[in-house]
Amino acid sequence: MVFSSTVFLFLFLPITLIVYYNPFFTGRRFRNNFLLLASLFFYAWGEPVFVWLLILSVVFAWGAGLLIGRAACRKRKKILLAAGVFFHVGMLFVFKYATFAAREFGLLFGGDFSFINIALPIGISFFTFQLLSYLFDVYYGKAAPQKSILNLGLYVALFPQLIAGPIVRYDKIEKQIEERKETIANFSDGMIRFSYGLGKKVLIANYMAQIADSAYNMYPQDLSTGFAWLGAIAYTLQIYFDFSGYADMAVGLGLMFGFNLPENFNYPYATKSIADFWRRWNISLGQWFRDYVYIPMGGNRVGKYRQFINLFVVWSLTGIWHGANWTFLVWGLFNFALIMTEKITGLTDKLGKLSHLYAAVAIVFSFVIFRSPDLTSAARYFSVMFGVNTNNSLHIVTDFFLVHGWPLLLIAMVLSWPLMPALQRKMTKLKLRDTAEPLLAAAIFLLSLAVTVSSAYNPFIYFNF
Predict the structure, then answer these.
(1) Is the bond leading into 23 cis (omega within 30 degrees of zero)?
(2) Between the CA of residue 137 and those of 110, 155, 169, 420, 446, what are the distances in Å?
(3) 313-317, long-range: CB within 8 Å, 24+ apart, which pairs?
(4) What is the pTM for the complete model shown?
(5) Is the torsion defined by CA of 221, 227, 233, 235 positive or negative?
């Protein structure tokens, strides 16, 4: 079940809200337990088998957290933490990477391991990192062990962020589980935020996907240089509006139920550098690696050589986290190389105003690697972008999408920059925001509904990770 589906919009969400806010049972325990059941149902709708894996992961983390909290000495705490990390990372490896590892092992040694073909549970990377966050926070004393397994389950399974984040740190939401307050103002803000996210996904990302898929699915000999660039730009816009749209909907849904979930995007395409881009893109993932990997390894407190190694490890893990494919590892290392180049040479300062152009081109190139099914396909796509092995006599597809889609392409490019915050500040200054913004959100919501009802199913990109 996805947020932009008719089942979610017309059945699941209305029913969940009606039961959650019923006038007869208003206690925190009822609301938490019902929300947990609703979240498990939400996950089981698409993963009727793997919902048991989610439950098993919660049970193990709950038990490990209690044992870590009760351990009398540091050594015992470390052993218990290591056991918890081994279990959850092991589960992630088995379900996400074992099939890939078996295939590569077979290619290397000439064996047939095709019988190893394990399905990937939706959202496993996200809920695994949240459970690891819980164990780390308990170990470091940032949070007390959660005595209620139901409350821990709600932290992990909360449906607004279960499938594709943001990765919510346990120490940031621990108190909200029992002490949050649902207000009309938060509910209203949540509806507006949800509408914006739905519009991003349905009205922009899905159309960008048509352009990107048309380009990336073409044979290289049939692809023109112009359409290759158009497809690469379209995918760059698609993944932003798709992922940030989901994040907006997640934050909005959280507000409807009284939760303040962390922001996951801050207009990353307005950046001047790749280092700054990653402070704005998938913020929760970057902070997770910073706090639980980079800083424990020494962070910036060590010499330049060790810092180089630390960054290399973080970016290798960032690439691997996204998927079991060499393209993701190379994509991570590509970002690492750019960040190190910026750090060592001061490139962005030297470029001045051209730094925006440099960052934009670098981001587009990185997502070509990210989107390609394998490294060979990525190399071929790049060759077409630079006019090699291309058929530039074929302009009909490029012309079609430019003629019919240029208004939406332009709107997407403009909205990927911080125009909306400036507009909101202007409406506040003119004392129009309280009336104008709900009307704008309602119009976007209704238009999105109309498109949703008439269009084909289109899942979120990050459901794959």
Answers:
(1) no
(2) 44, 14, 8, 35, 42
(3) 314/289, 314/290, 315/339, 317/289, 317/293
(4) 0.90
(5) negative
| CB-based contacts of 183-189 (< 8 A; 24+ apart in sequence) | 183/258, 186/255, 186/256, 186/258, 187/255, 187/256, 188/438, 189/252, 189/255
Q: Are 211 and 244 in contact (CB under 8 A)?
A: no
47: closest CA among 39, 185, 112? 39
Measured distance CA(43)–CA(272) in Å, rounded: 38
Consecutive sets of 10 residues in the chain, 465 residues long: mean pLDDT of each? 86 95 92 95 88 93 92 87 93 88 76 75 90 93 90 92 84 88 94 94 91 86 84 94 93 95 93 94 92 88 85 93 91 95 90 92 96 93 85 62 77 89 85 86 91 69 57
Q: Give SS3 for 4.
A: coil
The label of the residue with tokens 């932009």 reads: 4
> Which residue has tokens 């119009």?
443
**Residues annotated catalytic, as ranges:** 322
Burial 248-274 (b: 16+ CB within 10 A, else e): bbbbbbbbbbbbebbebbebbbbbbbb
Q: What angle do CA 449, 195, 404 make, to 5 degrees?
A: 60
Distance, in Å, from the CA atom of 423 to the CA atom of 433, rounded to the nearest integer, reads 9
Q: Please name the amino acid found at residue 261.
A: L
Residue with tokens 């240029």: 406
